[in-house]
Each structure stands twice: as C-alpha cells, then as structure tokens.
Amino acid sequence: MEDIVGLCKRRGFIFQSSEIYGGYNGFYDYGPLGVELRNNIKQAWWRDFVQRRDDMEGLDSTIIMHPKIWKASGHVDGFSDPMVDCKESKLRYRADQLFFAPVNVDGETIGYVSVVECIDQQEVAEKAAAEMKRKMAKQGELGPIVLKDYTESKPEEHAFIPSPATGKPGSLTEPREFKLMFETKVGPLADDSAVAYLRPETAQGIFANYKNIVDTGRVKIPFGIAQIGKAFRNEITPRNFIFRSREFEQMEIEYFISPNADWKALHREWIDTCTNWLVSIGLPREGITEDIHPEDKLAFYSRATTDLMFKFPHGEQELWGVACRSDYDLKQHQEHSGKSMTIFDEEAKEKYVPHVIEPSLGVDRTLLAVLSAAYTVDEVPNDKGKVEKRTVLKFNPKIAPVKAAIFPLLKNKPELVEVAQKLYKKLQRRWNVFYDASGAIGRRYRRQDEIGTPFGITIDFDTIEKDGTVTLRDRDTCEQRRVTEDELVKFLEEQIDG
Ligand code: GAP
Fold it and tell me: Model pTM greater than 0.85?
C-alpha cells in the first residue's frame, strides 16, 4: 500500500485533501492523472451498464434531499456504527473493527489481548498473548487465541480488555452508536427544522425519483435506474487510503423486478455481470471472491446479499455489494410520501410495488482495486541492453489515464517534430494522449510506464524518409513493431474503445 500511495502522490494521481494545512483525515483529492483514471472508470461503467443496455435509465439526483427521505429510508434512526473510545489516548475505534481474545494458559484466563482490524491481526494477537504469558512468568500451555470483535464482548469482560492504544485494561468505553450521516442546515433559519443531510448513499435519490421515471419514461419491468454520484459518511475510522473515506463516490443501480420473479436467478445473474465487468476493466478474476451474508446477519429488508470481495493490499475486503432489497424502500416512501409506488406490469397484467436488486459499487474502491492490480515492479532491458527494475502500472487501455505517448526520436530535428506534432494533434482529438520530446527515449518510455500509458509511438527517420510507418511499443511486453498510421488508429480504437 505504501508503494501505491507514494506513486499516487509522486505522479499526481491522489493527494491528501488540504495537505498544505496538514491534511484532513478521510478526504482525498484527485490530481491530473487521478481524475482521468476516475473519469474513465465512471465512463466505462456508465457505457456498459446504462448506454449499452436497453433496460436501464440514468439519473443524477441532488446530494441534499428532503430530510423526510432519510426518515423514510431508516437512515435517520438507524444509520450508525458501534463506536468505543479509549479514555486515556482519546482514540476512537469502530467496535466491529476492534478485536479481542482471552489469553488462556492451561485453561486459566490470565488476561486479554486486543488488536485493531488488520491483515495480520491473528499473528499480532498471538504475539501479544505469548508476551503476556512470558511477562507474567506463567508456566503451561498457551491456549488458542480466538479473536472476536468488540460488539460480541460481554459487559463483564470490558474491565479486562485492554485498549489497543495503551495496552491497559479498562480504559475502553462501552460501545455506543455513532451516527454516520453528515448534518447541515438549509435556509435562513438555523433551528432544528433546517436540519438536512448529505446523502450517505445515492440509492435513495433513485427511489425518490422512481415514480418520475416510471411516469415519464417508457420503462417496463424488469428495468433499472442507475446513478453515479458523491456520498458522504462520517466514518469513525477512515483508513487504508481511499478504501474507506468520508467523502466518496458510488455507482449504484436499483433494478426493479416483479415480486413473483425468480429473484435468486436474477441475483446470480447480477453477481456474474458485475464480476465480468470488473474483469473487463483489468481486475484479475482470481482476485475476486464472493462473500455471501449469512441469513441471520441480513438487514431486515434484505432477502440476500453477496459482496464481491477483492484482494486489496490491506486484505480481502468488500468492493461491490449486490443486495436483494425486496420492496422495503419503495413501500417506505409510499407510506411516508403518500404517493403510490405501484407499477402496472403489462405482461403479467397486474399492479404491484416492485422488488429491487441493488448492485452498489464505490468509484474510489474500484480505483484502488485497479491501482493495486496494475501496480507491478518488473525487470526490463534499458537502451543499452542492461536489465533494470521498472515500476509499471499495467492498466487496461480502456481505463488508462493516458492512452498513448507520442515521441519524436530527437527534439532538435524539426522534420521529426513536425510529423510527431501532427500525429499528436490528430490522436488528441479522440483520446487523452501525451507528447514528450525531452530526454533519452528509454527514459521517456519509463516515465510513461510508471503512469500506465499502454502505448508508446515513436517517430523516427524511417517514418520521414521511408514508408511513413511509426514504432508502436507495448508497455507490458516492451515489444516494438512498425505500423502505418491507419493501422495505428485502428489498433488504438480496438484497444481503447473496445
Ligand atoms: N446503497 C447501498 C450501499 O450504500 P454500502 O455497502 O454501504 O451499500 C456500497 O456501500 C459500496 O460503496 C461499497 O461496496 C463500497 O464500494 C462503497 N463504499 C461504502 N462506504 C465507503 C467509504 N466510506 N469509502 C469508500 N467507499 C465506500
């Protein structure tokens, strides 16, 4: 993760927000390359899930909506995370990310260890337990360390569980609910009636507009409404770079189906479609797994939820949630707004409130997954044939921030520069391409490898003196071949626009 964070800063992908004031925890800014990558991910999603489907409508609803929406959806009363504070260090933890275990020696509990959720939490806890046994000079066999999260702790255990910050037992508070929605005030009055919320998910904007789209569009069941937009959550512990932040973006679909539909089959179809899409933008299929939520842990409105998990640098974590949300949200809005949310199903000749399948994906998490999958350090020969290490981002050309770099072999040969500039201007009309004339050609290649530019195009003397062909270099294999301008454009079209 450190290498990725370092590269992102050095090459202008992602910066900590408000860095000149020491940074602002949980907020990130996207620099010149980051914004291109981000836009490309969003465009690929929009194209594949909205424009290339006949059963999907797009939407862009507001971030601040009528507060009654959040009452109806259950967010005002229930959208919170369990939190504990360390009274000594003043650090705050999400209770479900704070793990503890009793330390048993020959069956006797000699104390407790605690650890904040991390990729090697089991090892950390086991080491701490062995250290405790050693310090207390206990003879006997150390029992297995079985970690549980703090929400599963019993009140009588609290006095013995140490704070991960200080290692001292008894300094953690009881878990309490911490509300995740950011509040603001709308209008000239600053009293409670002015309280509004920054949306914590884009989904409710879809439910709130469902009736508008049914009434104005020509949709028929099953159909979906898709939206990309910012969401805000006052996360207790934003961490792991852009994985969990307080301002992030979601790409969400509410797919409306008949209550009588084979929802299990449709759910499966959506899980497969989502997995295939992740693979299509460059994630390795073997890095994606499914986490099926057990029935007893489902939210009360959910019939089934499967998370697509990805092997991030900090561990295997949720990337995309695919939930069957029943008719809960529409029924809630029907009740709270007094507006009917029914639809007439022409085929079945019946009227009902549809159920939904909800694939919900974070833009920032996708970007982190794409960066992690692309980040590679390999060895390639330099200009002089000497093998050296290089850092390369192996982005799929569809989402690469810069699609191709155009190099005149020498910058002081006007005839090379003129042809290179002409080609650059031509390609720039269609794609984000880069022109670079300075430095040895090998170094220019490396600079582009590091930001993931898939193709290098060099204009050399053969181009101007012989047949007009250019050298096309592949970022991953470093192989070069000569192509005509027509062949080049066709190739780029296939690779980038697919
Ligand atoms: N409408 C359903 C919903 O919002 P969620 O599981 O809370 O469900 C969906 O969020 C997706 O949004 C997650 O799978 C993740 O990709 C992204 N996401 C959620 N919270 C996030 C955060 N704090 N930072 C970045 N991405 C987040």
Answer: yes
